[in-house]
Amino acid sequence: MSELFTPEHLGAVAVTASICALLVMAARREPGTWTDWFSRALALVLVLNEVSWWIVSWRSGLWNVTGYLPLQLCSAATFVAAAALLWRRPFLVELTWFWGVAGTLQAILTPDLVQHFPDYWFVQYYLGHGGIVLAALFLTLGLGLRPRPGAAVRAFLATLAVTAVIGLADLVTGGNYMYLRRPPPGPTLLDLMGPWPWYIAGSTLLAAVFFLALEVPFRVGRRTP
């Protein structure tokens, strides 16, 4: 079971927050070609970090279809964030923002992780999840790529579609991707939403609220020409 708010956990959160803050401020104060190079480098790190997880789990004899397919929402967010960093398409940026801040950030604050630093799995977890959050903040707050009106609804519908596909994969593989069949072993926000399947309905409603709340700052701060 994961231990929350230990010095190790708080240290990882602090490092992630500091890197995000520094790079967002740098992009706002000193925009330039370096942001393009950094975006490409971060996209490469995200993809290589995810692929390394597949390779290491396979070589360690851990890989199986019930737990090691790239069917968690954060796995999808990894590739969406990498694509957004490379091509900066509005819908990709929007998905990165909502998935990164509403979903992946929560995974950093309440990690489903038993390994400790400097174990590979510890570093891989925080590098991957922290990289998604960094991409979300860098693209929107750093580079000023604002989600368009209605972005929250589009992202929510996309999330429901991805969840439906992963739910079917859970039925086929017997896995528990996105915790659709049972809650994670460690403490998370799902603990506040009751037993299965009620926490699925509760988390869906909470996601809708988070998504709407994450669009509000971009609408309130928008100036009409």
State the order of secondary-structure elements, H for helix, E for strand. Answer: HHHHHHH
Regions with little confidence, pLDDT below 50 for 5+ residues: none
Number of E-state strands: 0
Return Rg in Å. 17 Å
Taking the sheet with the most strands, its summary is: none
Beginning-to-end CA distance, first to last residue: 53 Å
Tally of discrete structural domains: 1
Give the overall shape. Answer: globular
Strand content: under 5%
Helix amount, in percent? 55-70%
> Average pLDDT value?
92
How many helical elements? 7
Given the helix and strand composition, which structural class is it?
Answer: mainly alpha
Could you walk me through the main structural features you see in this protein, from its secondary elements to its overall organization?
There is one protein chain. This protein is mainly α and 225 residues long. It has one domain. Helix content is 68%, strand content 0%. The protein contains seven helices and no strands. Helix 3 packs across helix 4 (90-109) and helix 4 (90-109) crosses helix 6.
Summarize the topology.
Blueprint: H1 7-29, H2 33-59, H3 73-87, H4 90-109, H5 120-142, H6 151-173, H7 198-220
Helix pairs in contact: 1-5, 2-3, 2-5, 3-4, 3-5, 4-5, 4-6, 4-7, 6-7
Task: Give me a quick take on this structure.
The protein contains seven helices and no strands.
Features:
single chain, 225 residues, globular
